[in-house]
Amino acid sequence: MVTEFGLRLAISLTQIGAVMCIVVITVLILTLAERKVLGWMQDRMGPMEVGPYGILQPFADAIKLFFKEDIVPAGANKFIFTMAPILCLIPTFIGFAVIPWGPNWTFEINGIVVKPFVISDINIGILYILAFASLAAYGIILGGWASNSKYSLLGGLRSAAQVISYELNVGLSIVGVLILAGSLSLVKITDAQTGWFWNWHIFALPAPQIFAFVVYVISVVAETNRVPFDLPEAESELVAGFFTEYSGLRFAFFFLAEYANMVLVSCVASALFLGGWNAPYPGTLMELVGLSSWSWIESTMWFAVKTYSLLFLFFWLRATLPRLRYDQLMRFGWKVLLPIALANIVVTAIAVFIYQRI
Amino acid sequence: MRSTPTTKRLSLSEWFKTITFYEILVGMKATLSHLINYRPVTLQYPHEKRTLPDNYRGMLALLRYDDGTEKCVGCDLCEAACPSRVIRVVSAEVPGEPTKRYSKEYYMDMTRCLFCGMCVDACPVDALGMTREFEWAVYDKRQLHLNKQQLLAIGDRSFSVREKRLELQHPNVAFFNVAFSHVPPKPN
Description:
- The complex is a heterodimer of chains A (about 350) and B (about 190).
- By secondary structure, chain A is an all-alpha fold.
- Helices cover about 65% and strands about 0% of the residues of chain A.
- Chain A has one domain (about 5-355).
- Chain A has helices at about 5-40, 55-65, 80-95, 125-145, 150-180, 185-190, 210-225, 250-270, 285-290, 295-320, 325-355; strands at about 105-110, 110-115.
- Chain B is about 25% helix and about 15% strand.
- Chain B has a domain at about 60-160: Alpha-Beta Plaits (2-Layer Sandwich).
- In chain B, the strands form 2 sheets. In chain B, strands 2-3-5 form a 3-stranded antiparallel beta sheet.
């Protein structure tokens, strides 16, 4: 006899395990894909030694990091030094709980309503992601401070300033989408974009969010500390920035957090702006063929395609652009992106107001 | 006191390029074209090696004649020619043949060698040669201090065709085996 609580727990844990597996596998793929894509763009081959065409390189890296010596530098605050990578990793992984991976289906097991493609459809989904993304900055700052190293501290301080500046733009660029969809739940926002691709919020009619999308993409590149905004870990100035003193498994945690964060922001961008799991055409091809119970595969594939395209954009930017100077970064964030995001909110609000009156 | 320098007024096309990230898009097009027309310029080194040029100057070696005798006559000219003092020759008489000399000991400190090939040019009997070996990474740098036997072994494995010992060379006379064709004959 299974109690209702036990059943709910089992279903949730299954979903969490599946999502964690998908995210970790994606991160493994990304570490290889980044090196390969960067290599190809620079007329190199990338890793070629481990396995055929180097496809087993992520596993070799993981095993190497796992068996490396774990060094705590002298004079480091040992408790915070140990906590920082975990503080960085957990908020990133927690964000995946509200991402809708597929169509908004429900089915019942013993009277319990289960949504198979989202772990928890809470009505403040996007706010929850933003809140935890801000918490991840604590991991970076505390890691930089606790290392007792000037490079780590400088990296941590830069990260603090950068994350505060660009979190604001991320939050403001999303507001336009929230006005259009009328909800904070990512499931409802994605549902509002069904139909043809011009229903996606990037092209949606009362107020196309294309400027908001550009602001969002630039801001999340800065927020995930990627090139050209990788000042917290600028290797030519700060050795490795905030994780200079980290080694072994703790370094792996920071690494994992950075890539998982990239996946998270790409998922959010595709859910908010690019229609999430919706295909660019109404319905799915599977339904036309008559396999409507298998149409979730097509939907999740569309979600994956959108997310991976955005992740490719991250690599593409990294292969192309040099690092910004610190004052340029700050000026761009506050004097260019912030006014665009604010203007977008005003225009969207007016457009939606007029559209509802007509 | 002005806080910011006066910025140049942008023309309309420049302004349009700025707000559409035109320059960045040009750069991204360049990287994407390299991705699409992917032709790597690198070689997978241990598995595939580049073809060496004909005059490649690699590891130095001591040579032998076809009958197995060493070419080196112990003249020390290579030692004199070497700019990095790589070579040390200990010359000695051949026992029982007072007119003939040979190198009793011959050392090369390959940690200092810059592969200029001056010793090969200086050698009057062509006893030194440059092989096409270049993979000489070792774990202990003392392994790069080579003695005569090692240098002869390198020569044996690199130069399969040995020069014929000349007939007119008297066994008691050190014969300088060089081509004299370019030296003008002495006037009578």
